[in-house]
Write a structure and sequence with these properties.
Layout lengths: L19 E6 L5 E7 L8 E7 L6 E4 L5 E6 L5 E6 L6 E6 L6 E2 L7 E6 L5 E6 L6 E6 L6 E2 L7 E6 L5 E6 L6 E6 L6 E2 L7 E6 L5 E6 L6 E6 L2
Antiparallel strand pairs: 1-2, 2-3, 3-4, 5-6, 6-7, 7-8, 9-10, 10-11, 11-12, 13-14, 14-15, 15-16, 17-18, 18-19
Length: 230
Amino acid sequence: WTMNADGGDLKKLVARDTPHFDGSWSKDGKKIIFVLDILQGTDGKLQIDTINADGSDHKNLIPHKAFDESPRFSPDGSRIVWVSTRDGNPELYSCKSDGGDIKRLTSEIAFDLHPAWSPDGKLLAYSSGRTGKQKIHVMSADGSGIKKLTDGSAIDSWPVWSPDGKRIAFVSNRDGNYEIYVMNSNGTELRNVTNHSAQETSPTWSPDGRKIAFVSTRAGGSDVFVMTVK
């Protein structure tokens, strides 16, 4: 679905009745990449599809081979990064925007999840359990130079870069429930920006970097909220 930033003009884009989710925009706003689940019995059959922002030209980009999730366009639109279990456990992969030139970026027994491109396309932030519980890591877009940004006993996940590349928002349960946190892109000056007893997940920055949209249960169901971030 799409809607205006004020919550108006809600539109359904995909006609399929099977689950489709985790949509992400291309930088030019013309396309959305998302996960389509072609249900088979009790097991999901996930594939990566694209669609124009007006709902036209629905295409399959990455055919089902395993659990394929969390697709993200690179800032210049030339490549896509996503999570796949095609070689065993969840790892990060990239390919050209037409689905070709698939490259495996991580090779860990632990789960690597929730990839996000830096604004300049040189780095990827993601969550990984390679040192225990899921923590925020960054690496070069080719999979080299891995660095861990967060520590502690909490689960840290779903990182997203601010448009200027100076900050990363992410989800953590380090204060008892899932909240939205923001830190500098080197892992310093970490702070809780939601501070609510509800569950808050799935942050995304506004293009000007002044606001974060997120999903919260504070109104009862899972709804979309927007907040200003200083």
